[in-house]
Design a protein that fits this description.
The protein is of the alpha+beta class. Helices cover 41% and strands 24% of the residues. Among the domains are: 26-153, PAS domain (Beta-Lactamase, 2-Layer Sandwich), CATH 3.30.450; 302-474, Alpha-Beta Plaits (2-Layer Sandwich). Strands 2-1-5-4-3 form a five-stranded antiparallel beta sheet, with helices on both faces.
């Protein structure tokens, strides 16, 4: 290679490297051995709130909460003394306006071409939202109504190139290996060209076991060897790709956010793909915990707290849904409304605790009397219960109502103050309709309520019934 060609390549490499650093969402810094800033990217400026001009020459300790200064100094001293490849601490990062955020800070030695220590460099990631998420997860376990905030921090889209110039290659390797995410570079045939230390640790493999192999032979997932393959997608459209994937690392499935960006050569030709893997296990676990909590909330919101059958709210929703469904299917819909006879006298005679136990027993007897999965029983209010019977005519609904009435009598719950029987009994009103467009389910409720009134007026402990008469039927 001629000297002009080598110079041109180093210049192009420098531009690519600067682009990578400036576009990274994580803050990147370089400091001298005294802690003064030598270089920083835009993310550090945004994170700290200091203008770039004020950061230049500022000592990095100004951005560290005083309580964490000892930890940071110890980290730098250990790296310098033991020549550790990379280290990290989690600290409070102090912004210019005095506010603090919680960050994860990596550090590694910066060496000269002669391999002498000249300073430190690394990344700073805002993990404040992760801490917030952990607190939210604790609240979800104790209270089922806390919402979850997503923790995902967008990763920068980066164009990278293979740098062969010696000094630029050393610097690129140092940055590549201090990333908190797993990263590797693939050629267009999906061969692994390079992998960083995080990626090697993630896979539990050495560099020799990865480089030169097909990516899907090393790390299999649900986006491999199909149209979702990121290399295929970038070859088609040449734009960055981001997707959530499940990959098998060290024998177990792990969820990641995979970000893939085109990797260009010196002449800006597409030569490969840079893939970045961010472990989102914590985010997925939080989402699953939140979903389970929401499901439990939905279940509890639909249940009557005393009887453990559906409550009035769930009844109203079911009746409305079944009315619309029967309208579409042109089927019949039956409704049973029942009332515990002389329940106030029962409460007065036996006490409210026994009254609650009585209602629980009646609810169980009603539930076991409904044999079809689509049948629905609910506590309508107080000592009233209701049952919704889709695709059931009046004769069939009356039969079900009689089964319920007998089931409650067979409980043999003593009721010495009842005027109709020495045990607890029910009065039941049954109504049936063939729903149609232009009518509301309230007409079915009204008809069933009228039938219940008739059952009570006729002596209680009985079933009364009636078909719904729509207004046009009377003409």
């Amino acid at each position: 290679m001629t000297k002009p060609e080598a110079a041109r390549e180093r210049k192009a490499s420098g531009r690519k490297l600067s682009h990578i650093i400036d576009e990274h969402d994580d803050g990147y810094y370089e400091i001298d051995l005294s802690g003064n800033f030598v270089f920083f990217n835009n993310a550090i400026v945004n994170m700290s709130g200091y203008p770039a001009a004020e950061l230049e020459g500022l000592n990095s300790s100004e951005l560290v909460d005083p309580e964490n200064l000892a930890d940071v100094r110890q980290m730098f001293e250990e790296i310098l003394a033991r020549d550790i490849a990379t280290h990290y601490v989690e600290i409070n990062f102090r912004k210019k306006d005095g506010r603090t955020i919680f960050v994860k800070m990596t550090a590694a030695l910066v060496k000269s071409v002669q391999m002498e220590p000249v300073g430190f460099h690394g990344f700073v990631r805002d993990i404040t939202e992760r801490r917030i998420q952990e607190e939210q997860q604790a609240r979800i376990r104790n209270q089922l109504d806390e919402s979850y905030e997503s923790l995902e921090i967008a990763i920068a889209n980066a164009n990278q190139m293979a740098v062969e110039a010696e000094v630029a290659n050393i610097e690129l390797n140092q940055i590549f290996n201090t990333s908190l995410d797993g990263m590797w570079i693939l050629d267009l045939k999906r061969n692994v060209l390079k992998a960083n230390d995080t990626m090697l640790n993630m896979l539990g493999l050495s560099k020799e076991e990865i480089v030169g192999r097909k990516c899907h032979d090393v790390l299999a997932g649900n986006c491999c060897d199909n149209r979702e393959c990121t290399v295929k997608r970038i070859k088609r459209r040449k734009i960055p790709v981001r997707t959530d994937v499940e990959m098998f690392t060290q024998g177990k499935p792990t969820p990641y956010t995979l970000t893939a960006t085109p990797f260009y050569g010196i002449e800006h030709e597409l030569v490969g793909v840079l893939e970045n893997f961010r472990d989102i296990t914590e985010r997925k676990e939080a989402e699953n915990a939140l979903q389970a909590a929401n499901d439990e909330l939905q279940r509890l919101a639909a249940l009557d707290g005393l009887t453990d059958i559906a409550n009035r709210r769930a009844f109203d929703e079911c009746l409305d849904n079944e009315w619309r469904r029967m309208t579409r299917e042109k089927g019949e819909l039956a409704l049973i409304i029942c009332d515990v006879d002389y329940f106030k006298k029962y409460n007065d005679a036996y006490g409210h605790q026994e009254g609650d136990e009585c209602l629980k027993s009646v609810a169980r007897a009603m539930a076991v009397s409904l044999l079809r999965p689509a049948d629905f029983v609910a506590r309508y209010g107080g000592e009233e219960f209701a049952a919704i019977l889709p695709n059931t005519d009046l004769e069939g609904a009356v039969c079900v109502a009689e089964n319920i009435r007998r089931a409650v009598m067979e409980l043999q719950i003593e009721h010495s103050d009842s005027a109709v029987a020495p045990v607890v009994t029910l009065s039941l009103g049954v109504a049936c309709a063939r729903p149609s467009v232009g009518h509301r389910p309230e007409i079915l409720l009204t008809t069933a309520d009228q039938a219940l009134y008739l059952a009570k007026e006729s002596g209680r402990n009985r079933v009364a019934s009636n078909n719904v008469a729509f207004p046009e039927d009377s003409n």
